[in-house]
Amino acid sequence: NAGVTQTPKFRVLKTGQSMTLLCAQDMNHEYMYWYRQDPGMGLRLIHYSVGEGTTAKGEVPDGYNVSRLKKQNFLLGLESAAPSQTSVYFCASSYSTGTGHTEAFFGQGTRLTVV
Amino acid sequence: GNSVTQMEGPVTLSEEAFLTINCTYTATGYPSLFWYVQYPGEGLQLLLKATKADDKGSNKGFEATYRKETTSFHLEKGSVQVSDSAVYFCALSDRRGNTPLVFGKGTRLSVIA
User: Fold this and answer.
1) Backbone phi and psi for residue B82, each to the nearest 5 degrees, phi listed first
2) CB nearest B105 (choices: A4, A35, A41)
3) Is residue B104 very low, low, confident or very high in pLDDT (cuts 50, 70, 90)?
4) DSSP 3-state assignment of A47?
5) Is pLDDT at B22 greater than 90 in this prediction?
6) Average pLDDT over residues B49-71
7) Which chain B residue shows the shortest CA-CA distance from A99?
8) Fewest beta carbons less than 10 Å away: which of A6, A53, A63, B69?
9) β-strand partners of A94
10) Mean of the pLDDT values across residues B57-80?
11) Cβ contacts (< 8 Å) between A10 and chain B: which residues?
12) CB within 8 Å: B101 and A90
């Protein structure tokens, strides 16, 4: 029962490098999210998706791109990494019952350091 | 828009003390409400939830009651343990479709023996 799996778990990038974070869920959830977590800032929504082939901007989308080509996968890309993107990134998924979302299931996080 | 406000931490308590973490929300309609917990080095996991007014969610000795009249969902536990040390997040789910979950900023709890 994998749930939500994020890869990689740790990464160090140099300023200007690019990378892609992968999130995979095996629960057939419609909704997927990418958050970043910084000390004292809580969780901030970067981008989200309400279904395969759709994406939408969250609170802090600048510097990131996403794609949801398959229902089970949600990719987060950094085209040109900056030190301000040093953070812990969490992916989550959920589904809607028609009366609201169910609980969200979270991955274990990716700790990214940009030097 | 929808929002969640929870008390700022950190909160430090002695073992067996009573815990309250306040959470209030702003939302259209009747949202579902959640408390998540994040233990050190881990992702968030659901602690409890309530989907309609006056519902009480409970789990692991924690409780929270959905109060529509005060738009609140305060988290309580009668006797905390060292193992309860974690960050707690209040969240809401709008009943409208295609809107993301909204989280509070989190409250760090430290319980000392």
Assistant:
1) -55, -35
2) A41
3) very high
4) strand
5) yes
6) 95
7) B95
8) B69
9) A31
10) 97
11) none
12) no
Contacts of B95 in chain A (CB under 8 A): 99-100
Per-residue model confidence (pLDDT) at position A46: 96
CB B103 within 8 A of CB B43: no
Structure tokens at A51: 């279904």
**B44 contacts: CB under 8 Å, gap ≥ 6:** A43, A90, A92, A104, A106, B36, B37, B38, B89
Residue B35, phi-psi category: left (phi > 0), alpha (psi -120 to 50), beta (remainder):
beta
What is the token pair recorded at B11? 């909160």
φ/ψ region of B47 (left if φ > 0, alpha if ψ in -120 to 50, else beta) reads alpha
The confidence score (pLDDT) of residue A98 equals: 65
Mean pLDDT of B27-51: 91
Grouped pLDDT means (10 residues each) for chain A, 115 residues: 90 97 96 91 90 94 97 97 97 80 87 97
Tokens representing residue A64 in the block: 């990131």
Instruction: Pick the closest to residue B56 from B80, B73, B44 (CA basis).
Output: B73
Nearest CA to B11 among B101, B77, B91, B102? B77
- Residue B49 sits at the chain A interface (C-beta within 8 Å): yes
Q: For residue B8, what pLDDT is reported?
A: 84
* Residues of A contacting chain B (CB within 8 angstroms): 4, 31, 33, 35, 40-43, 45, 48, 50, 56, 58, 90, 92, 94, 96, 99-104, 106-109
Q: Which residue of A has its CA nearest to B95?
A: A100
Please report, for residues A26, A107, B42, B61, B109, the alpha-carbon distance to residue B39 in angstroms, rounded to integers and kept in the order given: 23, 13, 6, 17, 10
